[in-house]
Amino acid sequence: MRFGVNYTPRVGWFHSWLDLDLDDVRRDFEQIAGLGLDHVRIFPLWDLIQPNRGLIRPAGLAAVADMVDAAGEAGLDVNVDALQGHLSSFDFLPAWLTTWHERNMFTDPEALAGQESYVRALGEVLRGKPNLLGLTLGNEVNQFAARPHPRPHEIDAPQAQAWLERLLGAAREVTDGIVTHAAYDATWYDERQPFVPQHAAELGDETVVHSWVFNGAAQRHGGLGTGSVRHAEYLVQLAAAWHTDAQRPVWLQEVGVPTTVVDPDDAVSFLEQTVRNAADVPGLSGITWWCSHDVSRSMLDFPPVEYDLGLIDEHGRVKPTGHTFAELARELRDAPAPAPSATGLVLDDSAPYRASCAPGGSFFDAWMHAADRDGRGPQVVLQSRVDDSVLLDERGVARIERPAGGPDASTETVGDDSALLGGAAATLST
């Protein structure tokens, strides 16, 4: 299992791409490697590297390659995000997609051609790097496709799939390592979202999940409640429900301690419980913590949650969470693979189901009830696949349970549909 961090440069945040100082980067990477972590995920700003649809700056591409090389010097592998249009509540779409040139980034033929050329150029400059872990299309690009984004590039599910297939295909042709795409949790929780679970579970080389408990989980369950410290574990299990290949890995690519909803004094406990619970799910390929370094307080206009997410503070001091994550990485990296939970909790996917899966929804509550009862979370089995005995056997599901209140509720039931409150996915993720 991989253990790493999403790299947030200590000096200048991601604006440091404007005048990249590799000495600063090397110092940051040496600290990260010193914690015993094995990889970083980096975020070149798309609008700086491709400021015009016809201009992909060679110096910008070279800066990305230099950062990958600097990570290699420290013994770190690197995953590179490409279409970096969104980070920590700020959008970085290039000007050729906005205002007077506004066009749908997912469907406009010229916009698609521009994105494809950028992905190919980035893959080419990284080809052959021995420490390249892979390429992700971008950070939570699905947030541009629907509300609550204030100016969504609206599409439907087939259009989302076509966009993914085209750009993932382009990336795979030029990229060494794994090719993935990343979505925030509206994919799993919000019916408005055109990027759907099947896209996450069937396209790309691994299924990627981002776990943030400011989505209603911590507000409802408390910072150290079951619904919070098992949220990442739950998302990993929920994602795996859509796999047709029982061996397909899930990557917990973002997870962090938002101290706006988790008491700062509980941050270490939240981290330890979250990591241990998630690591107990078979098929988890890695945990990439958000994030490496705190955002400096000199940087203005960030939401409060963003300033305290680092494992290392803005002055370069390792925080208690950093020491704890390092200890867990050393302990769990080579631990024996966990056995799968023998229980499969059935999710009715025959009708709109995503609000039920969100914090406050009936399926979410049923899963958490079962986790409390059994000490670990059950697997999730789609109603449409409940008779696929071969797949269930490959997954190690020996016993099927149905949430209470459903039409075929079993005698061994969990949850309570009377508590159905709907989804809570209206807050943009990091």
UniProtKB/TrEMBL annotation:
Q: Which InterPro entries match?
A: GH
Q: Which UniProt keywords apply?
A: Hydrolase
Q: GO MF terms on file?
A: hydrolase activity
Q: State the residue spans of region: Disordered.
A: 401-430
Q: Report biased composition (Low complexity) as residue ranges.
A: 416-430
UniProt-recorded name of the protein = Glycosyl hydrolase
The root-end lineage is: Bacteria, Bacillati, Actinomycetota, Actinomycetes, Micrococcales
